[in-house]
Specification:
3-stranded mixed beta sheet, 34 helices, 848 residues
């Protein structure tokens, strides 16, 4: 636990609370609750005990009870430190940082001269990102306790307002000049005391592009404060010269730095950059320049650059010969880098060679290579891609775990598997992967906030914008958005309407607002490392910047489609009449904004428009190199008519809702419903027929593995699963209509009335959906290799000819690969069949 109160709590109270703290520390939460109850029975006014009980309740999952207890304590306006700290911990674990702000705001009203309360309030505001109020609190804090760190907390808060301002002009014309003026005041009054304060000054000048002024700061007395890094002033000046594109000065500065530190790679990079800029601009020194003038002496030809590198190499060799000194790598790397840059400036015209014919052969070679080099991540990444291309996700988890993916790599490298795990039918692995990935994104916001707080405490202000930028990039990561929506759709597919869990219950728990598109499309960031896999292909076959941009556009398009599907399913579920006891949990707009049927109609229009635009967009069908990013499933989704099937089903739901809320039995509307039922059945039946193929196909008397069939079937299973869920919505809308029609028929004298034909149409539709589900079940069973009689001797895994002398050598490796593929396809088939079984059981209950 955190600080238990120190001198702010008397010894008797400390002794009473100690058993509760100890049990919380040891994870004995139920015992902690018992101890807290025991203390509260005797001392009802001991608020800290009540908060500790709330914390224990929270940690055993009783969130609502815990929150109620904390609110009870908050109403007493506590001011003792143990209670405040315990409440802060509670609210942090509840992910309610705004409550901490309220807590210390109230405490300060009771004790406005408490320095700790001021600092705690400031840090609480850091957690919620309220930079304007941070500035105000820092100002008040400096007035009461005039210390430099508090003054610069306010300056940093203004900088953050500039960095997060939607209007760049406002940042450049108001916030940053104000921050500069505040620091100038401290400089003029001679109150600058620390390196952190100089760093924040240089940061402001950098954002304002006042690089000349920054150079003057470094040359002046303030430059003497920069002591954390050896040679900080010369390094900063060299960087500023680069920012101002003063390449001659920059080149000279880096020459001097390299003579002092010849193994510093970043100096070589900037030295070469400045030298090449001088070469390209045909720069030459002024005629009146003295050769001995080091300030503007620069290498402006290739020969001069090579001579300088040779000079460094000779000096390094001389040092190495006189003592046990390892030669510096930097000199040799600089030569290689220079040659690479010069080579890239030339052109090459190479012919494209190679096809996908050698897919299986590549897997054999890489598996053999991985046995000899078990830690080679390049081979593991390429094997992951190749196994995914043949539809076998089974071997992937071991390979992915072998990469030891940690922290930020969940975002930068997660795309290598997340796009395949669901599409290849490994739903259990998908759920585990999505949970691990989302845990990183959830924890990240909390962690980066704590880093920012630490930066304020220790005065490392220049790191705060970096943490802020990092948090924003992660928060708006397209990988995060995709994993989130895929996880929600997977839960609906595999768990909704199974075991008594209705679709509407799931949607309510997910807290989806279908009327809102909460994605900030303009702020989406692509954090994928698309260059992680090595490629030895010729230059024109390498992954280009245009490919990367097209891949991001594909990912955005797929994300938009998946979000439209999820929001449409949510909107459809909200059309179901809610019993009175459940009405309080139903989303409502309180009479404001569109109704649920209007929202669904709007989403149907958006989905229909999107499907049309995506089909015509050439980027939708674009493929990328094997070592590049995987293409999304949008093209396959369109080709399989999945979008049309789902769209038509959503239209039927809306039409049946209109029929159920109308006082008249519209014959035209019922006829349209019947027509759409027919479209759904015809499209689904045709898609299943196309995808019902054997896993092994005959090709010129050779048996070849069909690697495209599994992704098609997974997409069909998902689509049919959503169709069945929406059929359940239709059933729940029609059921009250049927009951009303029966009551009306019984009351009428002279025989039964003619019931609306929609009931018979729905019955016929459900029967056909059951037939389609049976047909799809058979298609999935047909891809399970364990049910097929295969002769591996006749199965050609590669179209490439194999020499007889190496057949025996590769037979064992080929057989091992096939066993993994066989196991993977068996697992995919099993999980797809489990989903179909659950949905078929639900379908059997839809009888009016």
């Amino acid at each position: 636990m955190a600080n238990r109160g120190g001198h702010h709590v008397d010894t008797v109270t400390e002794r009473r609370l100690k058993p509760i703290y100890d049990n919380l520390d040891n994870g004995n939460y139920k015992t902690a609750i018992q101890m807290a109850d025991k203390v509260l029975k005797k001392h009802r006014v001991l608020q800290c005990a009540k908060v500790l009980k709330a914390l224990a309740l929270l940690r055993i999952g009783k969130r609502l009870e815990s929150f109620a207890l904390t609110q009870d304590v908050m109403s007493t306006k506590p001011v003792d430190e143990p209670t405040l700290q315990a409440l802060s911990i509670c609210f942090r674990e509840m992910q309610k940082p705004e409550q901490i702000v309220e807590l210390y705001t109230t405490a300060l009203k009771s004790n406005p001269n408490n320095e700790e309360f001021h600092t705690h309030l400031f840090m609480a505001l850091v957690r919620v990102g309220d930079y304007k109020r941070q500035q105000q609190v820092a100002k008040e804090l400096y007035k009461v306790f005039p210390k430099n760190p508090y003054y610069f907390w306010g300056v940093m808060s203004i900088i953050l307002q500039a960095l997060t301002a939607t209007d760049d002009k406002l940042a450049q014309m108001m916030y940053l000049p104000l921050a500069e003026k505040m620091v100038d005041r401290m400089v003029n009054e001679g109150k600058m005391e620390a390196e952190a304060e100089v760093n924040i000054y240089l940061m402001i000048l950098g954002y304002l592009k006042k690089h000349d002024k920054a150079v003057n700061v470094l040359d002046g007395t303030l430059g003497q404060f920069l002591k954390a890094e050896v040679g900080a002033c010369p390094i900063r000046k060299a960087e500023l010269y680069c920012n101002m594109s003063q390449w001659a000065e920059a080149n000279g500065a880096y020459r001097r730095l390299l003579r002092q530190r010849p193994d510093e790679w970043r100096f070589y990079q900037q030295y070469l950059k400045s030298a090449l800029a001088l070469i390209e601009s045909n720069w030459s020194p002024p005629i009146n320049q003295n050769d001995s003038d080091c300030d503007i002496q620069a290498d402006h030809t290739v020969d001069m650059v090579l001579d300088f590198i040779d000079e460094l190499a000779a000096a390094d060799a001389e040092i190495a010969s006189g003592k046990s000194h390892t030669p510096s790598r930097g000199v040799f790397l600089a030569r290689m880098e220079l040659l690479r840059i010069l080579k890239e400036r030339g052109t090459q015209d190479l012919e494209r060679t190679g096809t996908e014919r050698y897919l299986w052969r590549m897997i054999e070679i890489l598996e053999k290579g991985l046995k000899a080099s078990t830690s080679c991540h390049h081979m593991k990444l390429l094997l992951i891609r190749l196994y995914c291309l043949i539809g076998a996700f089974g071997p992937i988890p071991d390979l992915y775990d072998g990469l030891d993916i940690k922290h930020i790599q969940q975002d930068t490298l997660g795309y290598t598997v997340s796009g395949y795990v669901t599409s290849l039918g490994h739903f259990t692995s998908a759920n585990a992967l999505f949970n691990t990935t989302l845990k990183f994104f959830t924890v990240n916001h909390k962690d980066t906030t704590e880093y920012m707080i630490t930066a304020y405490k220790f005065g490392t202000f220049h790191k705060i914008p970096e943490f802020l930028t990092f948090r924003r990039r992660i928060s708006h990561s397209i990988h995060c958005a995709l994993v989130t929506v895929e996880k929600l759709l997977l839960e609906l597919l595999s768990e909704a309407e199974i075991g008594g869990n209705s679709l509407q219950d799931f949607i309510l728990d997910m807290e989806i607002s279908p009327e809102k598109d909460e994605t900030k499309w303009d702020e989406i960031t692509d954090n994928r490392d698309l260059d992680v896999m090595l490629s030895w292909a010729p230059q024109h076959r390498q992954l280009t910047d245009d490919d990367k941009a097209a891949s991001l556009q594909q990912e955005k398009s797929w994300l938009k489609l998946r979000q439209l599907v999820l929001r449409s399913l949510a909107a459809a579920s909200y059309l179901i009449p809610i019993p009175p006891q459940g009405a309080s949990n139903t989303p409502t707009n309180n009479g404001e904004g569109p109704g649920h049927e209007e929202v669904l109609g709007m989403l149907i229009e958006q989905l229909e428009r999107y499907l049309g635009e995506a089909a015509e967009d050439p980027i939708t069908h674009r493929k990328f190199p094997v070592q590049g990013p995987p293409s999304t499933r949008t093209a396959s989704y369109l080709k399989g008519d999945c979008g049309t099937i789902l769209l038509t089903t959503l239209k039927v739901v809306l039409q049946i809702h209109e029929l159920s809320t109308s006082n008249e039995e519209s014959a035209d509307l019922q006829s349209k419903i019947q027509q759409d039922f027919t479209v759904i059945i015809d499209k689904c039946t045709e898609s299943i027929r196309r995808s019902r193929r054997c896993l092994i196909r005959e090709d010129n008397e050779t048996r070849v593995f069909d690697r495209h069939i599994l992704p098609e079937l997974v997409m069909l299973v998902e689509t049919l699963g959503f169709v069945i869920l929406l059929s359940g919505v239709c059933y729940r809308l029609l059921k009250p209509m049927k009951a009303a029609a029966n009551r009306k028929s019984k009351k009428k004298k002279g025989g039964a009335t003619v019931k609306p034909p929609v009931f018979q149409h729905f019955k016929h539709y459900i029967e056909n959906v059951q037939l389609m589900a049976d047909g799809l079940t058979c298609a999935v069973q047909d891809i399970d290799p364990t049910t097929l009689s295969l002769d591996l001797g006749k199965l050609q895994l590669s179209d490439a000819p194999v020499e007889p002398k190496i057949v025996d050598d590769t037979a064992a490796g080929t057989n091992s690969i096939w066993k993994r593929v066989e196991k993977s396809y068996h697992e995919s088939s099993k999980e797809l069949l489990d989903v179909l079984k659950g949905k078929k059981e639900f379908l059997a209950m839809l009888k009016l």
